[in-house]
Amino acid sequence: MKRRPQKIGWFFFDPKTETVLLHRRDHRAKQSPSMWDCFGGKIEKGEGPEKAFIRELYEELGIRIPKDEIISLIKDKNKYIYYIHFPDWLTGAIRLGEGAGYAWFSIEDVFKLTGLTDEACKILSKFEKKVLNSSVKRKCEKRGQVQSITKGS
Question: How far, in Å, CA of 97 to CA of 122, rounded?
Fold first, then answer.
């Protein structure tokens, strides 16, 4: 019997500024408390990955995105990871429903974050290589701290 994916995750990418929107996990989170990560959640029984993504996106940020703006990055037996080109019409519409905050980071700075989860580092490294056609090899280890403005609470 084929194993069904259990998790979905995503991040926004703004191609104009080459920045990604990540969220800071709450200090009470069971996994990776107070760390920077991609947004995400579990796929509920009877849901497909896209339906779970649309539900989680609304629960976590209070927004709805048309299906044709969802871009698949990773599909494997455990998870589906998506990214979304940040639409101009969305500016100012985000409200944080879960987590401790969110912030935009440049592609360069995101890999310098202290407190970036290993999973997010691997996902963003794959994004940089596959989508941005970068030949930079990233090591997913904490190498410094980037100051950021955290929105929401």
Answer: 25
Kindly tell me the burial class for residue 111, based on how many C-beta atoms sit within 10 Å of its own C-beta (0-12, 13-18, 19 or more): buried
Q: Answer whether 81's CB lies under 8 Å from 1's CB.
A: no
Do residues 41 and 56 lie in contact, with contact meaning Cβ atoms separated by under 8 Å? yes
Contact (Cβ atoms closer than 8 angstroms) between residue 14 and residue 86: yes
Side-chain-facing half-sphere of 152: CA atoms under 13 Å:
21
Identity at 145, one-letter amino acid code: Q
* Phi, psi angles (nearest 5°) of residue 142: -75, 125
- Reported pTM: 0.82
**pLDDT tens digits, one per residue of 59-101:** 888 888 888 888 999 888 888 898 988 877 666 677 888 888 8
Q: Would you kindly state where each structural domain of the chain is located, as residue ranges?
A: 7-130
CATH code assigned to 7-130:
3.90.79.10
What pLDDT, on a 0 to 100 scale, did the predictor assign at position 70? 87
pLDDT digits (tens, 9 = 90+) for 108-133: 899 988 899 999 999 999 999 999 98
**Alpha helices for the chain (secondary structure H):** 49-61, 107-110, 118-130
